Amino acid sequence: MRVLVIGSSAGETLPDQADEIAGVVRDLPGAVPLFGDVRERDILETIQTRGPFDGLIISAHGDPAQGIALSDGYLSTNALAAYTNRAAARWIILSACYGDGLITVLLMATAADVLAASQEIDDRDAWRITRTIAQELQQNGGDLRATVEKLTPAALSPMRFYANSKRDRRPTAERIGSDFMDYQPPHNGGRIEGALDAIRRELASLAQKVALLEYKVSQFHGSSGSASQTTWIIVMAAIAIAGAAFSILAIYILRATLP
User: Fold this and answer.
1) Which tens digits make up the pLDDT trace of 9-19?
2) What CA–CA distance (Å, rounded) separates 15 from 30?
C-alpha cells in the first residue's frame, strides 16, 4: 500500500501534527511523507517521481473557500482533484478544518472516496482519528471503506465519510439507486439481512447527496434574487431525497419478507 502523507505547517501551529505525521509513517510502511514547509511543487514532483498512490492523507489548515494551506499559498480544490487523479488515489483523508467544504468538487472530479472534517477539528482529535485510521488501514490492506465501517461514525466525529459512487464495488445486479426496483433480494434464509444491507448502502448514498446539497445551500446563504430561489429548490430536493429513503426502506422490507 502506497500513501502520500502531506503535513503542511503553514499557518497557526498545530502542536500534535508532527507526531501525527510521524505516527502515520510508522503505521504505514509504504507511506511517503511531505512535512513542514510543503509547497505545491513538492506535491507535484512527489507524485511524478514516486507515484502512483493508493491514498492521500493531508494534515493542514483548511479553508472552505480557498482550499488547503501550503507554505506557498493555498492548494485549491481543483488542484487537489487534479493531483488526486494524477496519483490514481482511491481515497483522500482531509485532516483539516472544514475539509468537507471541498468534497463537492472532489467527488465530482475524481473517483476517490473522501473522509473530511465537517467543521473545526481540534488538533488532538485530528491526531487521534488519523492515527487510528492509519493503524486500521495497515491491518486491512488499505481499505478505507472497511476502516470507516469498523470504526463507526461516532469514533470519527467530527469527520464524515463520503463514498464516491464511481468506486461502487457492488455487482451490477445488486446496485441500487435510480434502478433500485431491479434489485432482487436473496432467495434464502438471509433475505432480510441482505435487504437491510442494501438499504444501508442506499441510505449512505442518499446521505452523500444530502451533504452535497447542504454545502450548496451554505454557498448560497446570504445571497438574494436567483440565488435565493435556487436555495429553495435545493432544500426541496433534499426533502424529496429523504422521502425516497423511507420509500426504499418500505419496499425492501416488503420484498424481503414476502415469499
Assistant:
1) 876 777 788 88
2) 25
pLDDT at residue 154 in the model: 83
Q: For residue range 122-164, what is the model confidence (pLDDT) as tens digits?
A: 888 888 989 999 999 999 999 999 999 999 888 888 888 999 9
Q: In angstroms, what CA-CA distances link 239 with 3, 203, 233, 235, 244?
A: 38, 14, 10, 6, 9
Please list, residue by residue across 68-100, b when 16 or more beta carbons sit within 10 angstroms of its beta carbon and e when fewer do: bbbeeebbbbebbbebbeebebbbbbbbbbbbb
Pick the CATH number of 3-167 from 3.40.50.720, 1.10.10.10, 3.30.530.20, 3.40.630.40: 3.40.50.720
Evaluate if pTM is beyond 0.70.
Answer: no
Q: Are strands 3-8 and 31-36 parallel, antiparallel or unpaired?
A: parallel
Beta-carbon-side half-sphere exposure of residue 25 (alpha carbons within 13 Å): 14
Looking at residues 92-121, what average pLDDT do you find? 84
Helix (H) / strand (E) element for 68: namely strand 67-70
| Whole-angstrom distance, CA of residue 63 vs CA of residue 74 | 9
pLDDT at 55: 94
Are the beta carbons of 94 and 116 closer than 8 angstroms? yes
Q: Any alpha helices (H) in the chain, and if so which ranges?
A: 17-27, 40-50, 77-87, 103-109, 123-140, 144-156, 191-220, 226-257
Residue 256 corresponds to which cell in the numbers above? 424481503
Q: Which three cell numbers stand for residue 185?
A: 433480494
